[in-house]
Design a protein that fits this description.
Layout lengths: L1 E13 L3 E8 L3 E7 L18 E8 L4 E10 L8 H17 L7 H15 L5 H14 L20 E4 L4 E3 L10 E2 L1 H12 L12 H19 L5 H7 L4
Parallel strand pairs: 3-5
Antiparallel strand pairs: 1-2, 1-4, 2-3, 4-5, 6-7, 6-8
The structure holds zinc ion (ZN).
The site of zinc ion (ZN) has 8 residues, from loops.
Length: 244
C-alpha cells in the first residue's frame, strides 16, 4: 500500500456508482484509480473524487488500477468553479500535465507546481500572469526551458530584433531567423524571464499589461503544443475563443 497526496486531474463515471480517476500524486506520479462506489450517497469519498480536489490517498495497486484503501480530503478547491476563467485555466493546467506525463513516473516538482498553481489561483482576481508563469515554468520542468539569453543558434547577445522560434526552442537573432512569426521585443524578453524566475505567488505583482501577457501566452501555448506533439487541447481552444 502507498500513501501519497494527489490531485484529481480527470474522472469519468464507471458502471452504476463507480468512477475511474486519473490522479497526479506526489510520490507515484500519474495513476489510474478505480473509486468503487464513489457515487453512492453514503460513500464518503465523493468530494475527493472531484476534479481539482487535493487529498491524502492510501492506495493499493491492482493489475489495471489502483484501489482506494482510505482517503482524506485536504482541499476541494471548489471555489475555482465560481469563475469560468479560473475553471478553464485550471483545466488547461491539468490537461497539460496529463498530455505530457507517462503513467506512474514520479515527478515531485511537477506535483508541487500544480498544487501551488491551484492554491494561488484560488485567492486571485487576475489570474492571467499566474497562468503565463505556469506555462513558462511547466515548459522548463518537462525539459523545454525556452532559451531567452541571446540567440539559440549563433549565441549572439545583441540583435536589432528578436524572434521566438519554437522549433529551435528560443530566441533567434535577425541573422539566424527562419520562418518564425513571433517577433519579441527586448522588454518582452525581460518580462518572460521575470515570469519564469518569480515565485508563482509573486507574479501578480509584476508590472506586465494584459496584452503582453496574452501575447506571451499565445507564444508559449503554441510552443508547448509543438513540443508535446499535440494538435489541440480542449481547454486551450476554449481559452482562445475567449469563452469566459
Ligand atoms: Zn543568431
Amino acid at each position: 500500500m502507498s500513501e501519497t497526496n494527489g490531485i484529481v486531474i480527470s474522472g469519468m463515471k464507471y458502471k452504476e456508482s463507480s468512477k475511474i480517476l486519473t490522479i497526479y500524486t506526489r510520490e507515484l506520479g500519474k495513476v489510474s484509480v478505480l473509486a468503487q462506489g464513489a457515487l453512492r450517497p453514503k460513500s464518503g469519498v465523493m468530494a475527493s473524487t472531484e476534479v481539482f480536489a487535493l487529498s491524502n490517498w492510501k492506495l493499493r495497486k491492482g493489475r489495471t488500477f489502483h484501489y482506494i484503501e482510505s482517503v482524506d480530503l485536504i482541499d476541494s478547491f471548489y471555489t475555482i468553479r465560481d469563475s469560468m476563467e479560473k475553471m478553464l485555466f485550471g483545466f488547461y493546467a491539468l490537461e497539460l500535465l496529463d498530455k505530457s506525463t507517462p503513467m506512474e513516473e514520479e515527478n515531485v516538482v511537477l506535483f508541487e507546481l500544480l498544487e501551488k498553481f491551484i492554491r494561488t489561483m484560488k485567492g486571485l482576481k487576475n489570474i492571467l500572469p499566474l497562468m503565463v508563469a505556469y506555462e513558462l515554468k511547466f515548459s522548463s520542468f518537462i525539459g523545454y526551458r525556452p532559451h531567452l539569453d541571446g540567440c539559440v543558434t549563433c549565441g549572439g547577445k545583441s540583435s536589432l530584433a528578436w524572434e521566438f522560434d519554437q522549433t529551435k526552442g528560443g530566441l533567434v537573432c535577425t541573422n539566424c531567423r527562419g520562418q518564425s512569426r513571433y517577433p519579441v521585443s527586448d522588454r518582452e524578453v525581460q518580462q518572460m524571464k521575470h515570469l519564469l524566475m518569480s515565485k508563482l505567488e509573486d507574479v501578480q505583482f509584476l508590472d506586465i499589461d494584459d496584452n503582453t501577457l496574452w501575447r506571451i501566452h499565445n507564444r508559449m501555448s503554441d510552443y508547448l503544443l509543438y513540443n508535446l506533439d499535440v494538435r489541440e487541447m480542449k481547454s486551450l481552444s476554449m481559452i482562445k475563443q475567449g469563452l469566459f
